[in-house]
Amino acid sequence: MGSPEEARVALPHLRLDELLEELQARLDAARGTRDRVHSLLEAVLSVGRELDLEQALHSIVEAAAALVDAEYAALGVIGPDGRRLSAFHTVGVSEEQIARIGPYPEGHGILGELIHHPEPLRLPKIAEHPSSYGFPPHHPPMNTFLGVPIRVRDQIFGNLYLTEKRGGAQFDEEDVSVTLTLAVAAGVAIDNARLYEESRLRERWLQANAEITHRLMSDAARTEVLALIAERAGEITGAALTAVALPMEDTGALAVEIAVGMDAEAHQGLVLSMDNSLMGLAFSAAAPVTSADVGHDDRISLEPPRFEGLGPAVAVPIGTGDVGARGVVLLARETGRPVFTATETETLQAFAAQAAVAMELAERRQAAEEVAVLQDRDRIARDLHDLAIQRLFATGMTLQSAGRFIEHDEAAERVARAVDDLDETIKIIRSTIFGLRSRDGAGEAGLRARTVRVVGEAASVVGFAPSVRMEGLLDTDVPREIADHLVAVLSESLTNIARHAHATRAEVALVTDGREVRLTVTDNGVGIPADGRRSGLSNLRERAEQLGGRMELAVPDGGGTTLRWRVPLKKP
Known about the structure:
Number of strands: 16
Number of helices: 14
Distance between the termini: 131 Å
Mean pLDDT: 78
Largest sheet: 11 strands, mixed
Structural class: alpha+beta
Low-confidence stretches: 26-35
Strand content: 15-25%
Order of helices and strands: HHEEHHEEEHHEEHEHEEEHHHEHHEEHEE
Strand order of the largest sheet: 9-10-11-6-7-8-12-13-14-16-15
């Protein structure tokens, strides 16, 4: 051992080493705090730069995981109902793991705890919390947990979830403080991204409105304008399917005039009931009607099948107020996509007003054209009456008077025949005048309305409502004679189904392309027996052959019978 003098010298050295070590530790802590504050500021700036909402949310999750050194992080967006999650953004889990785990969580267990109690939640072990009920298969193990809410203008937008702090450590109060600070910045960034998105969306709606107005002013046809409205509405809202339906006069039903997008051909021409279709409900109520899952909605008839792969949907009436609804626009997104929000629905209502304007202008233009035609007919009739008939009558009177001075019998007979021909010509002209002053087809129902009426009357006989699909200018291109045959064939076909098919489903399709008209009636019944009576079918075949067409019978893949009856609109 050294001397007491040496011990006194060593003691200050020991205390100095301890002080230096403590000073170094404090310097390291200060440096760590400085670095963390610097990282927090960088994260805040990085998140604040994002204007795309989806990218902003992903940046928030990445920044949160980096700041607290968490292996896994997620941001759950709370849905409109305020009780469950509508979107889930993750970091740390691969796409393959997500696919094995299955659907994203909806907000039960620990995640739901933050939804119902939006306060910071820190857990040393998730499984020990009363609200925890385990993870689904293939889910990575998670123990430590930190969750904080994200507020946007005093509204809870969603929650940040952080798990598994690296190195086996626990989340501490400083982690909570840093995450809360990031959550505040995230709220501002989300609000900015939302405002930017809304301004861009408003700009797109304005551009679409301007395009539609330009089409209207350029005398575009109503169908063309409605198709444009459907296309633009689908593009802007991200809808997979857009359809426009208009009411059918004297039928109490809607007909789908325009269909764009996924399985559009399954919707085009469909005749929809007012009671069991989303579009019918919106038309009857003259107000928007939404569905979270249009393919599994008890209010909607799923026959014929047409909503496979589709989920959220909204039907918006075209025009309301004093004139009532003129039609309906339907938009549907793919399964798993967000539901239509109240803001989107309100915007769609304003946009649908453009469709009402299109229809109003088209109707007025058509009415003006009809008035012009009628005025032209009246002018022709007036000229025929005042000029042609009077001159013919005067000529006839002159010939009749001159006939008395003709001594030659054969010449007198010829003059008398000429007078009779002039009288017959006057009768023909008068009949023509009467026809010109009468509106063609006034008071007569068109082929579309007659078809819907026949199917509706047959529903009580067959025990169910057959689905109807119609395409083409059936009321204008199909002559009356062929229309009468079509109605008779359809009625006989549905009667045969009721009597012999024992079917539970039937589909009627009536289509014309301007050259021929095709009627297809399909059922899922027992089919036609080989030794069954065919007198009724022979009658249907004779009707087709009489008009230069043909009738065919086929067996669909699922069984039953398909009748195809087709005739040309002009005789060969």
